[in-house]
Amino acid sequence: MNHLKTFILLAALTALFMGIGYLIGGATGMAIALLLAGGMNLFSYWNADKIVLKMYRAQPVDEQHPNAVVRNYVADVRQMARDAGLPQPQVAIIPNDQPNAFATGRNPENAAVCATTGLLDMLTREEVRGVMAHELAHVKNRDTLIMTVTATIAGAIAALANFALFFGGGQDRERPGGIIGTLALMLLAPMAAGLVQMAISRGREYEADRVGAEIAGDPQALASALQKIDAYAKRITNQTAERNPASGQMFIINPLAGRGADNLFSTHPATANRVRALVELGAKMGMQPRPRTPDLTQPRPAAGFTTSTTGVPATPTEPRGPWG
Known about the structure:
- This protein has 10 helices and 4 strands.
- It is mainly alpha-helical.
């Protein structure tokens, strides 16, 4: 049923893409949009993960990394992947102060999991394990292809809607909808695409939380991590995500919250609901609740990266975290 629902929602995104093409160029425009959508889906299947990794400047890391925190991160991911019966994914870090993480790849054999430098700086090792177990759960559930393709199509819909505003043919009376229809679609199409993303993503996040907690064996650590990530994401902007909002659904916590205003349609469930479900799962496993909300009045640790060890430009502030 979950796969059927996803297929229907992806079909809705494709139909919406075709609708914009029809508004721009009538039947011919719709046919062109159909061809573009088909080509985009095929291209996304093979290349969307590479595009996302390049977009976020993800850097592969392994157990030979000079930083002990990175080595622990890689070792934990590989150990949990083995325990979950998964092929070893590519492990990467993203040079970004906002604590967050995502997984991508068309299948478990071609998967990659990524953590930001902010995540490794601000969370404990147990919390990082919980977050990466969540990402491995997305790989195990084969969510990564759907999330990546959906992000690609939704971004294209927003771009095509903006194109329709300028080339929608307000002077062409034979073009369907005219300028009023073009303006309406420019506003409604991205909203509709956001609704589809929301429908696809929210249920998958709850399931990945559950499976990830089982992989890591510690629901409380993931609950604590979610609270920390959510709190810091509201005050640290992820500039790459802001420029590419359709990719926001891929992260464990909505990275767009850093702008200071909530999206009209959130692709993520409320963090409090996710924490509650994890605490209940932990109680069933006989664990005591220990979610922790960070004290944001205290200075957060700096990333402390240096070009000589990671290839990432050095942070201008004095290193104080585990990277320094």
